[in-house]
């Protein structure tokens, strides 16, 4: 499964011939909700960072954390070209910030973003017609059947589904049950790793409502580059993941990814990949975030007693 199945693309292409979707707001337009002041937690709070990482990270059925390997190719269906380009540009910018390459125009999409005014029917039909694309009957490459059903039933403005490929720790693809040669075996390191194969992200135009398009684009970029827990509790943290909960609460949402979001992605893409347990990866992410978010050291105070110039130095003769 190196790319999204052509069958899925054909199934989703009915959007282009179907009812027109509600156009997203102009990037310069914002919410009309009343602004409130939100105090973010201290950036050096280790416990807060650890809680954030634990809450937002969704692991696969093997309880390990996945990520993209080297290169991505995002594609958009159902948005006007101008909006689609803004979305693609934001994903590309955030991907490049963590060291990923972005495929050239015409590449085969492995990140497919679909916008529609009737996502419920769309998702049900897409999963029914393309079970292999959603790994419906394959264990170990997604969050599992229960999570897939939650994805199908979701009423969220944006929903996402990641499918991984089977890779050895050196990046070699393997087939489950096949004999493979491994370099070493250990109690800490694993012989395999979790690389994303593709992700499907669905935007419901009616549920998204009126938000800054720049914020929506960064929200989509965040859930494109990381497998985020859709039920994550990020209250009290300044994060793009609060976009829709803030809006519902009457709080002015952030305009894009925050320092916390960027630090999380940076930590994810520098964490160890060949470990047996996902909690070790989460610890790597938390440590990286703690370093990234730590305030710069304060400059050392100058010694006022020290002479500032040759003229101010005392006369050694005692005069």
TrEMBL record:
Q: Where is the signal peptide?
A: 1-22
Superkingdom, taxonomy of origin? Bacteria
Note down the stretches annotated as region Disordered. 276-319
Q: Which UniProt keywords apply?
A: Signal
> Compositional bias (Basic and acidic residues) at which positions?
276-285, 299-319
Q: What is the official name of this protein in its record?
A: Uncharacterized protein
Source organism:
Caulobacter ginsengisoli
